Amino acid sequence: MAGFKKLIFIQLLSWLLFASVGGYFIAAAFDGAASNAQKKAQLVVSNYINSHSISEINPEKIQRALADGNTFSSFILRDYDGKEVINIQSPIQLPAFAKFVESRFNSIRPQFAVNSAADIKVEFTINAVSLASLLQQALFIVILISGIVAIIPVIFMKAMFKRLNRNISMTVAEVIDVYINQNQVEAGLETAIDNSKIKRLGADLIPSFNRLSHFLQSKHDDIENAAHSIKQEAYKDVVTELGNRNMFVEYYEKNIESSEKSTFGSLAMIRCSELQSINQTRGYQRGDEYIKAVADIIKHISGTYTDSKVFRLNSSDFAVVLPNVPLKESERFGDNLQSRFTQYQQNQELSSVANTGIVGYEKGKPLGELLSIVDNAMSMAQSKQTNAWHVQRETDLVNNVSAGFGNQNWRKVINEVIEAERVHLVMQNIMPIGKSIKAYAEIQVRFKTAENQVLPTASFLAMAEKLDMAIEIDRLIIDTSLEKIKSRNFSEKYFGLNVTASSAHNDQFVIWLERRLLKETNIASKLVFEVSEFGLQQNIKASKRFIDMIHRVGARITVERFGVGLTSFKFFRDLKPDFIKMDASYTRGLEEDKNNQYFMRLMVDLAHRIGVSVFAEGVESQEEKHIVETLCLDGVQGYYIEKPKDI
Question: In terms of domains, do 228 and 239 share one?
């Protein structure tokens, strides 16, 4: 459109130029014609007056001949003395252009003639109206023709521009199509155009489209980089700067679940057990510091494994992917985490730091199923000592019907067990060391499904605790145990019953248990209730109320899994337990571990000073039993002493 306007402007200038040039030549022609007419008129007048004398000239006749003004617009005849004999004035008005030309060229001027006798003098001006009319017509014709000559190209050029624009648009459109298609294949744009019908028209566009291609590629790279940066920020946890759950899901689906090559490894889930407590008691800033410290520990430990990845799944959970690390090796990872967590716990004076669940993964394993299994492993780790870890092995996945159960499935299974009272009781004796020691048999429980399959006890109890169903399970175990003891008439034997900390700290459960034991006073005096050291520490006041109630009805208390917490002996003086049972981790390899031997000897000495008997659990060899005996413990329990048997 801009080119068309330019063309119109050029044509307009051309028209004005042609009209001006034509007008100039017409004016020049008019000037020449006027000069010739004046010369002819002067010649005629001169010949006429030379052939006549003043007396021969008839003024009336001349007056009649010139009065119409067609020949002369002005005619003055004078005699020898200069006296006017004839004076004819026929003023005329020339056309505007002729008047303009006449004023510029001075074409029509008064002419003078004198006869040879010098007695006749004539002054005249010719009438140029006819010449002026011809001039005006010629000018009009020039203007008209030049205007037509200028307008006709404009008219044709407009149509040509439209057609040209359409052809250019179609050519560019086809080149764009070729450009788009060639970006989908390996052939270049030049080759694609050479093979098309637009070779001649589109060849000149190749450099521009190549520049466009480079420009678009540059912009595409910029957009990709910006999108990647935005994605990294969106997938990053603001507190720890680790990848969040979205990044974990993307990583797992891309590198494990949908991987083209075979892959395996271990997945660990670490749950910060103290986050809620720290947020409530010390503030959210301290909670963030705690999370950062745990993240640093996890990154430090996992950093020793090639290609390991750490993610923060939610406020309290971390996930660690250990590619190509078998479950056996992941146990060392769990031990290292537990050691560092315990060290941090002591420095910060915390009750605990975190628990770890570990499972193996392989190519094609759905993430949802894997998370369900690792969550189950986490639940089992939480049922152990402080900062404990648990590995869910392949054999567990094959043999345990609980493998892969989600929360809803667990809730259904636990409800079925409670409603049908599908519990099986076994007992494992604690062998006393010394004749004066009073030991007991620990009643242990096996839970069964409707198909009579045994559920893993640790997983079952951990999930019951997680789903707030532990109290109902404890009631079922106690009721079943009391009925079994009554039916077998074990009047001389002592029995130990495990109670979860959540039940021991629940006022309604404590009231129910006290009433239940008061109904069975003869049996209550034969019972020993076992509660974990870690559980008792969670609420000292509630723990004291529970232990006081147990002593009030004539029963006894054992603090089990002792030695994994930070409990002081002032705590025992206040609670006054009857027994403590050292955690199995101190018994394992005891014959070679001098540190554990020293610690157990110290615990035994202190416990005996306040009247508390000390048992060792997890004794599985003759060597371990011998060392325990030399350390002056009061009793031993384990598979080497006696395996659990039916009541």
Answer: no
**Does 416 lie in the same domain as 389?**
no
User: Whole domain around residue 210: which residue ranges?
Assistant: 197-233
DSSP state of 254: I
Instruction: Write out pLDDT tens, residues 109-133.
Output: 787 777 776 677 878 777 777 777 7
- Give 376's DSSP letter: H
CB–CB of 235/244 below 8 Å?
Answer: yes
Amino acid at 598: Y
* Of 377, 399, 421, the domain-final residue: 399
CB–CB of 62/182 below 8 Å? Answer: no
> Of 27, 38, 41, 36, whose CA–CA distance to 134 is shortest?
27
Integer Cα distance of 150 and 7 in angstroms? 10
Per-residue pLDDT at 149: 72
Count of domains in the chain?
4
Give me the pLDDT at residue 530, please: 95
- Whether residues 538 and 444 share a domain: the answer is yes
Nearest CA among 112, 377, 116 for reference residue 268: 377
CATH at residue 530: 3.20.20.450
Query: Is residue 167 one of the residues assigned to a domain?
Result: no
The domain that holds 325 is classified in CATH as 3.30.70.270
DSSP element (H, E) containing 644: none
Instruction: Note whether 529 and 621 are same-domain residues.
Output: yes
- Sign of the four-CA dihedral 591, 597, 600, 605: positive
| Whether 20 contacts 143, CB under 8 Å | no
pTM across the whole model? 0.49
Total Cβ atoms within 10 A of residue 340: 20
pLDDT of residue 573: 74
Q: Does residue 166 lie in a domain region?
A: no
User: Cβ atoms within 10 A of the Cβ of 609, count?
Assistant: 9
Is 159 among the domain residues?
no
Q: Which residue has the tokens 């371990």?
A: 624
What pLDDT, on a 0 to 100 scale, did the predictor assign at position 507?
93
pLDDT, tens digit (0-9, with 9 covering 90-100), for 148-191: 776 776 677 667 777 777 777 776 776 667 666 655 444 455 55
Residues 83, 162: Cα–Cα separation, whole Å = 77
Verify that 442 and 590 share a domain, yes or no: yes
- Identify residue 523 by its one-letter amino acid code: I
Q: Say whether both 289 and 377 belong to one domain.
A: yes
The Cα–Cα gap between 306 and 134 comes to: 107
What are 197-206's pLDDT values in tens digits?
555 555 666 6
Which is it for the CA torsion 540, 546, 552, 554, positive or negative? negative
Checking phi first, is residue 487 left (phi over 0); if not, alpha (psi -120 to 50) or beta?
A: alpha
Residue type, 562: F
| Contact assessment for residue 267 and residue 255, using Cβ atoms and an 8 Å cutoff | no
Instruction: Let me know if residue 140 belongs to a domain.
Output: yes
Query: Looking at the structure, do residues 379 and 465 belong to the same domain, yes or no?
Result: no
Q: Please tell me whether residues 600 and 488 are part of one structural domain.
A: yes
